[in-house]
Every structure is written in C-alpha cells, then in structure tokens.
C-alpha cells in the first residue's frame, strides 16, 4: 500500500453531532420541542437533496433551499422566496451548525498511524471548498491530511470512479495500492471498490452492513488495516 484517502464528514469531522445540535437549537428558537421526528425529517431531507447535488441535478444553493421547503412548514414557518430561504439557512441553521463543529477523538491516533507507516495521505470529500476547508481549520487539520479534493472543485462527487482516481493521482498512487476510509458504505466503500480502490468501512454507529468484512468502528483500528 502506498496511500490512504480519507473522507471528512462522519470520518474526521462529527457532522451528525453538529447537525443534530444545530437543529435542536434552531427548533427551540422557533418555540418547539426538537422531537426525534423533526431530527429525522431534517436528516432525510438532507440525504435526498444532497444526493441530488452530488449527482449534478441541482446547485448547492438549491439543494439547501429544497431542504428548507420541506422542513419549515412543520415548524409553522412560512416558506419564502429563494433569497429569504438563503437567509434562513444561514441565520437559522448554518450559524448553529458552525458553532458545534467538532472532530472525533480518534483522529489524532489515525494520523499518527499513517505517519508511522510512511503512507501518502489525501482527503476526498463530497462538499464545497470553503466549508470543508473551514472545518479542517476548526479541527486543527489544515495541512495535515495532504491534498484536499472537494466535489465542488472537481465538479463530480463520490461514488463516481473519476473522483477516487483524482485523489489517487493527487498523491501519485496507483488505485490498486490505495486505501479509502469513509463512513458512508454505498458511497465510500462500494464506490471506491468499483473504482479499483481498496476500501474499509468506518461504521461508528453500528449501522452495518454487518457482513462487511473490511469494517472498523473507530479510527484507532486503522493501523491494523495498514499492515
């Protein structure tokens, strides 16, 4: 093995935790209780519309607006025009999301294992440049994860094979001698393998699939996959 490509959200950065905390605070600010149903509604809208952006069917701004068009009515909030939705997303959700940015406590161990193994490292994320680089800065990881490739810059997103190949090229590694690590099994694992890249599933929440042979529940286990 020559290189490891790391995912960001859900792998190094606790997107789920930050999102849940932001939604809870936002809902309370609307005078409501942040019930499990509301959290699930936000998560479902995010998953569906973010996929539409990854697949190039909508712009990044429009995918955010679509999430709000679904989520605001249950809060008893009016759905305004595009400009109003953009303001709502930034002032209602995004500022709270940023206030809750955290990394996972196993990241430093993983980076130490990669350094000890002498492997080249890159980061590949299905996000946009400004936000993903800001996350890395907040986590103290700027300059520590090698080249950073975002879907926004590439114009394509995982699980497209070209994206994995771009990450391998960025560190001068053959796909067959590269390992991809990510938390989204269909995107990060199935997609990587289809591109000829070895992959290990980071299953932090035990959601499976349980029959996945290349699986870990913490980045502290990464060293065992580097040997």
From TrEMBL:
Gene3D superfamilies: 1.20.120.1600, HAD superfamily/HAD-like
Residues spanning the membrane: none
Pfam families named among the record's database cross-references: Hydrolase
Enzyme's top EC category: hydrolase
UniProt cofactor(s): Mg(2+)
InterPro entries hit by this protein: HAD-like_hydrolase, HAD-like_sf, HAD-SF_hydro_IA, HAD_sf
Keywords linked to the UniProt accession: Hydrolase, Magnesium
Signal peptide coordinates: none
GO molecular function terms listed in the Swiss-Prot or TrEMBL record: hydrolase activity
Domain of life: Bacteria
Enzyme nomenclature, EC number: 3.1.3.-
Protein name according to UniProt: HAD family hydrolase
């Amino acid at each position: 093995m020559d290189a490891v490509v790391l995912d960001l959200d859900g792998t190094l950065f606790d997107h789920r935790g930050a999102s849940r905390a932001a939604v809870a605070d936002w809902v309370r600010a609307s005078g409501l209780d942040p019930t499990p149903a509301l959290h699930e509604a936000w998560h479902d809208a995010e998953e569906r519309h973010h996929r539409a952006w990854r697949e190039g069917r909508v712009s990044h701004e429009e995918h955010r607006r679509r999430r709000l068009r679904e989520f605001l009515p249950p809060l008893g909030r009016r759905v305004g025009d595009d400009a109003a939705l953009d303001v709502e997303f930034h002032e209602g959700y995004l500022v709270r999301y940023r206030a809750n940015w955290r990394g996972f406590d196993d990241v430093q161990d993983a980076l130490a294992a990669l350094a000890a193994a002498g492997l080249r490292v890159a980061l590949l994320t299905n996000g946009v440049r400004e936000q993903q680089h800001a996350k890395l800065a907040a986590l103290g990881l700027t300059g520590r994860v090698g080249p950073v490739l975002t879907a926004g810059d590439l114009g394509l997103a995982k699980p497209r094979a070209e994206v994995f190949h771009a990450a391998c090229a960025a560190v001068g590694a053959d796909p067959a001698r590269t390992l991809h690590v990510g938390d989204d099994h269909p995107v990060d694992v199935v997609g990587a393998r289809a591109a000829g890249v070895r992959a290990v599933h980071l299953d932090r929440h035990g959601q499976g699939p349980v029959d996945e042979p290349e699986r870990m529940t913490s980045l502290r286990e990464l060293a065992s996959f580097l040997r």
